[in-house]
Design a protein that fits this description.
Elements (H helix, E strand, L loop, with lengths): L8 H17 L5 H13 L3 H13 L1 H9 L1 H7 L9 E6 L4 E6 L8 H4 L4 H4 L1 H9 L1 H7 L9 E6 L4 E6 L11 H5 L4 H5 L5
Parallel strand pairs: 1-4, 2-3
Length: 195
């Protein structure tokens, strides 16, 4: 976007409505069909999907490698993000580095893997503060990291979405993939929680 453009919800809403109107006027799509497409796209959107991706990465080192190399292709192996136009980049938490995602312009977010974004993710306070003072923001979420842990903030865009691969909790070696997936929260996939 140019420096004179704004990226607020009202502008986006107007653009979306104009696009819908043009599609209907040109006979490309009827309004009811457009609603069906949008509903179908959102019907499978859930943080359960992201949790399944993480659990697979925890139990399958080969999948984990593919996920970190090309997140889009790897999640498509599991049936997620088919037809997505955005690139998915997966960033891995380690003992030395903790990752957190934000979209400083609006609320770009891997919807199909995380479900609808939480209100705090869209808030101006989170979008501005997590970039300036990530450690303090994470502490407010209840995530206290050691001072030696580097925090990396990833800014999502309309082209690239991010997903955090949290660290596997210790003591979970005997758990299966479904049990592991049940441990993963949406906040962990954003980076505002450990798991």
């Amino acid at each position: 976007m140019g420096s004179g453009d704004t990226h607020d919800d009202a502008l986006i809403s107007r653009r979306v409505r104009r696009l819908e109107t043009l599609l209907e006027e040109k006979g490309v799509l009827a309004g009811a069909r457009l609603d069906e497409i949008i509903d179908a796209s959102l019907s499978g959107a859930s943080p359960v999907n992201g949790a399944r991706v993480v659990a697979r990465a925890w139990v399958d080192p080969s999948f984990r490698s593919r996920l970190l190399a090309d997140g889009t292709a790897a999640v498509q192996e599991l049936g997620f993000m088919e037809g997505a136009v955005q690139r998915l980049r997966v960033v891995e938490n380690t003992p030395a580095v903790h990752n957190v995602i934000v979209c400083t312009l609006c609320s770009c977010y891997p919807l199909r893997l995380l479900g609808p974004s939480p209100s705090w993710y869209k808030s101006e306070a989170y979008r501005s503060r997590v970039v300036r003072e990530p450690r303090q923001v994470l502490t407010e979420f209840g995530l206290d990291l050691p001072p030696s842990t580097e925090i990396t903030v990833w800014d999502s865009t309309s082209e690239t979405r991010y997903l955090v691969l949290p660290r596997r909790p210790s003591g979970t070696e005997s758990l299966g993939e479904e049990e592991l997936a049940a441990l993963v929260t949406r906040n962990a996939l954003i980076g505002t929680a450990a798991v």
